[in-house]
Amino acid sequence: MIGELKHRIKLEQLLVEKDSLEQEIETWQLAYEVWADIKPLSGKEYFKARQTKSDIMVQVTIRYRPQIYNHMRMLFNNQIYEIVSVINVNQENRYLQLLCKEGVELV
Q1: Is 72 exposed, middle or buried (0-12, 13-18, 19+ CB in 10 A)?
Q2: 33 pLDDT exceeds 90?
Q3: Which bin fits 2, alpha (ψ -120 to 50), beta or left (φ > 0)?
Q4: Which of 91, 90, 71 is nearest to 81 (CA)?
Q5: How far apart are the first and last CA of the chain?
Q6: Which residues in 5-24 are b (16+ Cβ under 10 Å) and which e?
Q7: What is the pLDDT of residue 51?
Q8: Are 87 and 97 in contact (CB under 8 A)?
Q9: Longest CA span, the chain
Q10: I want to staple 37 with a disulfide (CB 3.0 to 4.6 A). Which of 2, 61, 67, 72 is the partner?
């Protein structure tokens, strides 16, 4: 498994702060930069508002980290991925599998 962790990814968490007018400001902060194995799971296309949209799901395997949650996001190859679920493989605290849905492209 260790040799398969060949992709460098970033995991970010959402921070909500208040400005001087007490308005909430959301920013993403880097939580981890780790090595990962990324495998595409499925791709489905459908028509919505006369546009073709593609949902791409990937399975990402990383070494175990205790504070990774499904409200975080992953960055890889100028793409943002929403973390849909986090699975502790065999409950051994060795690896995590992240099921991620492709989002918008970074500019």
Answers
A1: buried
A2: yes
A3: alpha
A4: 71
A5: 33
A6: beeebebbbeeeeeeeeeee
A7: 57
A8: yes
A9: 50
A10: 61
- The whole-number pLDDT of residue 46 equals 53
Model confidence pLDDT, tens digit, residues 37-66: 999 886 665 555 555 556 789 999 999 998
Contact 64, 100 (CB under 8 A): no
Average pLDDT for 27-43: 91
CB 96 within 8 Å of CB 86: yes
Q: How many CB atoms lie within 10 A of CB 64?
A: 12
Backbone angles phi, psi at 66, to 5 degrees: -75, -20
